[in-house]
Amino acid sequence: MVPGTLRFEQVGPLARITLCHTHRFNAMTRLMWRELRVAFEHVQLSQDIRCVVVAGEGSHFCSGGDISEYAAFRFQEASLREFHEGDVWGGLQAMLDCDVPIVAQIAGNCMGAGVEIASCCDIRVSAQSARFGAPIAKLGFPMAPREAALVAREVGAVMARQMLLEAALFGAHDLKAAGFLSRVVDDDALDAEVQATALRIAALAPQAARMNKQTLRELNQPLAGVSSGFSHHKKVVKSTLNPYAYANSAEHREGIQAFLDKRKPAF
Amino acid sequence: MVPGTLRFEQVGPLARITLCHTHRFNAMTRLMWRELRVAFEHVQLSQDIRCVVVAGEGSHFCSGGDISEYAAFRFQEASLREFHEGDVWGGLQAMLDCDVPIVAQIAGNCMGAGVEIASCCDIRVSAQSARFGAPIAKLGFPMAPREAALVAREVGAVMARQMLLEAALFGAHDLKAAGFLSRVVDDDALDAEVQATALRIAALAPQAARMNKQTLRELNQPLAGVSSGFSHHKKVVKSTLNPYAYANSAEHREGIQAFLDKRKPAF
Amino acid sequence: MVPGTLRFEQVGPLARITLCHTHRFNAMTRLMWRELRVAFEHVQLSQDIRCVVVAGEGSHFCSGGDISEYAAFRFQEASLREFHEGDVWGGLQAMLDCDVPIVAQIAGNCMGAGVEIASCCDIRVSAQSARFGAPIAKLGFPMAPREAALVAREVGAVMARQMLLEAALFGAHDLKAAGFLSRVVDDDALDAEVQATALRIAALAPQAARMNKQTLRELNQPLAGVSSGFSHHKKVVKSTLNPYAYANSAEHREGIQAFLDKRKPAF
Fold it and tell me: FRET label pair with C63: which of A203, B61, B88, C125, CA 20 to 30 Å apart?
């Protein structure tokens, strides 16, 4: 069997990160979590990427963690902590710290780790047949605190409770109604819709997008304080201290001048 | 007339708490608030309860507070404060502090105190003919700060403002759309749906459920600081300081082993 | 061309504030932002206003900021900051600080500044043909931090990201589903629905409404801390320190006595 991995591609201003572990419906291995962190740190340091798409290889987004690895580390407290705080949160935090807009392309199973990864994306587009949940109560363990905080914030407390306390599964329309998904499309329209979304984002002012993400992220700071004793992952780029330093930038001048000239801006 | 009371029943791992004050549509008396606290402190200290259902006797959930008692204490500041901070919040805080999953079974009127009690439940299942609101602006008084914070958090700010500033009433489908209700079912299917939900929860890993509730509760801590000068109710059980101490537990091992063995876990 | 202005009217307990700049679809000029602050400080100090309606003159609510003014001040950091922190936030903060219930009457375009102004209203009623968005990424600049925090809180993070990162536009039913709008009505029913709402609010206990607004506002305090270095606008009225001081008030006694007497209260 082929071990799980991440594929990173870039075409012009668009990056694409694909979770590849198809014989396990793209379940995340520890290696894949570490690769996720590396991939998003790369995006954050890049100067020319304007939008990132996260998708799963084949017909599923991500079915959760790779349970075949669990017996090796989950039953000792130290290694369990290192898994959640190091591998998993390392990947998720790198996504949350990324200033470039992220679009999730969701099909098939989006469970557990899949919901967590999608929760770090800005725009979530789903095929209508996708299925969502986090039925780990069937596996005898709770969601780690920061992961639960992240999911509850994005899917809402009511749905988070149903996922965690009932092990309930949901369809794409439920997640749209809960405010988690931006759009639900026919299964065969998913590729085109995500590509169009990414191109639309890439055509807009890139500095403004980064600043908007920094601002919206700051609203979510309480996540970091969910539980004490967490190691801090150092952020690659610090958020701006001055929200008005962009005043004299070329992008700002171009956008307003183009409007006044009644022409399309070129960012 | 029969004075209001609470009925507590337990069958196996399922507890059931029934608000009984039928000639006033289960309006909460001061005594019932105190009984609510006692009941949930009992649940929290119990070792074998895995799910609690909260319901109203007869065809209503709870129509609010028992206004016939109000003239006796509401017009003096000290006794008004004692009512809200002692009796009412004592009951609600005991529910919020309870680590066992709570299912609300909602039918008929769910008004004022009824919305507050439902707001402390994890999974809310409603009959489609149920009615919701908090029309106390017609009674000339505001919602007490912590109660308003609780309700606004659970029904959302927009609906809370309509309830409090317009004295607006809503149907079950409105509360479903607002993300407050987990499920709305036909009136005659309510009993069966709630029972099935409770059994489903009771079959899942009980330690994981408690830990998930502790985590989700921690996200809501700001509630406690809504207003200064509140007395602190001592919690029966403190939340865990170590979210990974469960690593070597039997429940955790059973869940993962059962998955690997392709059999149903026995928690 | 007629310069933009605000019109203030009062009939009995109802005030009406109209954004008047029709040849620019009621785009906000700097002067209009300052007038907005003055108008709401007046409302707050008034003793007899029980409800305020905010509407746009003609067929639009507000199309955003008046871009024709932007070249004069946006490209220097100091004047850009003064615009956002002084003019814009001065107006919005006065709305947020207002203890009197505010109803937004939304028709036509509700974009950028329009969404921000609507976000400060308690009850939002919209014509079904209204359009919503904040497509400033096309103008090359981000939303200022406190404005973005306000909008994200009211429309939800998912929709805020679509507005800011995709420059997406939405219809009234989308904003209803997102929990932003209280009601969506046929275009020709908007006037009557808003008037009925305002009259209904004005007939309820006015002291209770002010206290409820103070409580709900306190839940949103984190907004103030979104970014450092902001100047503080002094509030006209401080929120009450004692949430139970109303115990012996005439309004409280009247509401409960009327209920016990089975008559309509007169507040």
Answer: A203
